[in-house]
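Standup notes
- DV: blocked on the single-chain target, sequence here:
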Amino acid sequence: MSIPSLLTRLCCFVFSLLIILMVANGCGGPKKNTREIINPGAKTTLDNRSPFLKIHLRNGRAYILSEWTVTDKKILTGKGQLFDINRIPVATGTFTISSDSVVIFETNILEPSQAVGGLTILTGVSVVVTTLCIANPKACFGSCPTFYITDGKEPILQAEGFSASIAPALEATDIDALYRATSTESDVHVTVKNEALETHVIRFAKLLAVPRTENTRVFVTPANEFYSCGMFISPSSAMSSEGDCLESIRYFDGVERFSLADSSNLASKEIIELKFDDVPDGDLGLVIASRQTLLTTFLFYQTLAYMGSSAGDWLALLERQPLSIIDNAKSVGKVLGDIEFYVMNESSEWTLAASFSETGPLATDVRMLPMPASFHSSRKIQIRLNKGLWRLDHIALVPIQKKVNPIQLDPYLVIRDEEENAEAKDALIDSARTLITYPGDSYRLSYRLPDRADKYELFMKSRGYYLEWIREEWIKEEDPNKAAMMFFDPKGSLKELAPVFKKMEAQMEKQFWNSKYVRP
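- DV (later): unblocked, structure below
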């Protein structure tokens, strides 16, 4: 596609988006047993105190129902109004709707059914009512599916699946190392949880296993290629803005190197320089264990707050766009950038050798990046990354031995956690089925390896997406102009929001981890 053509489509997208959002605010939420047509110019929103189901269709139209039922055949019947693409009422009465024509459901009543569940956003959820995040709604615990597996002593959080897949249009496959998994059994049990106010849609969760010897580890690259590697080679020095940070990255021990965000621009960069003394000949890779800070969580929640009561309209519009437009939904992430690794060439110039980015602040991600041959001459690496965005736990070189292929296992048993006598679910066994989870849900997935688990390097391969529920406290900040700015002027947004984030940055970690959702 030509640049002018792309710009034209972007302009049309922005124009139609703003028109829809401005008019959408004129749609009055239907009250039960009433059929009131609202002037589209009036400033009204859905009435979160009365039951409603807003149905966003693939053709841009929307229903708002005050009464509805769902059948097993994915057919909905209900009373309410039909609105055109500009959110002008065109019909009132009883409607029958196929869920196949729907891109997003929006409601204030949870409907845990296969017909609507996987596309449902709850709007107007109060964090005060759930006793979560009272001090700071922007620091509420949020996650994609979290995967727990034993380290030999107890189950620990080792992976978070498809963290960047915040809408159906962004559904993706993710591979995460279960680096600390330890077991002498051939059966491996993984617990997947929904610990936030979210709807999780898991297409599959497969265990990948690669045989390894006592003196080797297997790592996955950003391109999802697997390599058997030798023992770690630690850097001899690591210098950053605060000085020597070697001890923070020498071991995979939970002691992380991180910096605070810039107070005037959340997109500010920083540099870490590594030096290695003893570098063997042959192919080398750089292993990095990292996770994000809560900066991206804040930006995500702030964007949803700006969308406010129109969040469903934004997400529904995203679902109807071509891939070229959908990619612009990642604009803030592009400005924040990847972790970039530079090596010095023969002309003493720093050249980009590799880069990667893994969304998510929960589980530490472990990746290996192959280094170019030119690294051997300088034995120096420069890491360029966004200030205040990354927590680095471990960085080291490894000799690359050979490329390997994992075996792929589906779970032979899926049951609701802590219900030993519950009927086994087949949702994750057949890849054509889907597991939908809600806050507090926990399932145990059981896999069977050909041999003892400690003879394999294990990875979790998951695919799906999730939908964040819209907090009542966020809606107070609704601002369509600032929401549009997040997508189309991300650099400006990151400067404007810097002082807002800095006010809460110091306390966010504690508030975030103390606000996991637990089913009452």
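- Follow-up: Residues 1-48 have pLDDT under 50 and may be disordered.
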